[in-house]
Amino acid sequence: MFSVALPMILLVGCSTPQSVPLTVENSSSIKNIYIEKNVPKPSAIYWRGTTQAWGGALFGALGAFATADAGMTDAEKMIKFMEKHKIDISEIVYSEVSKQTAALKTYQITSVDKSDATLTLAVDMYGFNKTHPFGTHMNPMIRMTAKLIKPNNQIIWQESEFVSDFASENDQGQSLETYQNEPAKLRTALAKASQVTVKRLLAKLQ
Questions:
Q1: First-to-last CA distance in the chain?
Q2: Is residue 37 part of a domain?
Q3: What is the CATH number of the domain that holds 151?
Q4: What sign results for the dihedral spanned by CA atoms 41, 137, 95, 202?
Q5: In a domain? residue 14
Q6: 46-68: string of b/e by CB count within 10 Å (b at 16+)?
Q7: Rounded to 5°, angle at Cα 165 from 160 and 38
Q8: Mean pLDDT over residues 138-154, rounded?
Q9: Is 49 strand, coil or helix?
Q10: What's the domain count of the chain?
Q11: For residue 95, with 0-12 CB atoms within 10 Å meaning exposed, 13-18 middle and 19 or more buried, which class applies?
């Protein structure tokens, strides 16, 4: 039995924002950028995998609540599990883009009042897929959109990237059981998928 939280249409990029290449003129005028800390994310996640028991991993000793939430989908249970363990995809993405942008040294990261433009990221969709029918790994997938916006609100650069659960670099996925028993590995899997996506996006900003 499979649980799908979001339409598969999201995976083929039909609603991907239009690409806005960075012109030579705009590129030469941008030296200092501010990285927006607010990274929007969807309230629901994509989920496709065999239904499994969450039990104590999600509810701990609060068995009574397990009965109350018995009607939750696996996607909803995963969201609740991440909230319980303070695993926030928005925070993960912001941390990753901050590290990678600083490492590139293409731009100086400054406060918003000293910046020539603001770099924003948004998580368009993310979730987990059972990559191989006979396997157990629930690999993360994620699609992001990045923008470079001037103080006058002009979008001078915009690109989107999707990293699927099949991507070779996206190699930290584990089984749902492992995620339940070792939440740190869930964070690691999401961080790796985010790292790959951010790297692809920033490569287009060079």
A1: 44
A2: yes
A3: 3.40.50
A4: negative
A5: yes
A6: bbbbeebebeebbbeeeeeebee
A7: 45
A8: 96
A9: coil
A10: 1
A11: middle
Q: How many other CB atoms are there within 10 angstroms of residue 150's CB atom?
A: 16
* 3-class DSSP assignment, residue 96: helix
| Structural domain of 41 | 8-54+62-203
Contacts of 163 (CB under 8 A, 6+ apart): 141, 142, 143, 169, 170, 193, 196, 197, 200
Whether residue 87 contacts residue 190, with contact meaning beta carbons closer than 8 Å, is answered with yes
The answer to whether 162 touches 11, Cβ cutoff 8 Å, is yes
Question: For the chain, give me the number of helices (H) and strands (E)?
Answer: 7, 7
Euclidean distance between CA atoms 204 and 206, whole angstroms: 6
- Alpha-carbon distance of 102 to 182, in angstroms, equals 30
Q: Which of 39-43, 55-59, 94-98, 138-142 has the lowest mean pLDDT?
A: 55-59
E-strand spans in the chain?
32-35, 46-48, 108-109, 117-130, 137-149, 155-163, 174-175
Q: What are the distances in angstroms from CA 51 to CA 8, 33, 179, 192?
A: 18, 44, 14, 24
188 falls within a domain: yes
Q: pLDDT for 28-70, tens place per residue?
A: 999 999 999 999 999 999 998 766 545 555 545 444 445 556 6
Q: What pLDDT does 52 receive?
A: 56
Q: Does residue 84 sit within a domain?
A: yes
How far apart are alpha carbons 134 and 46 in whole angstroms? Answer: 20
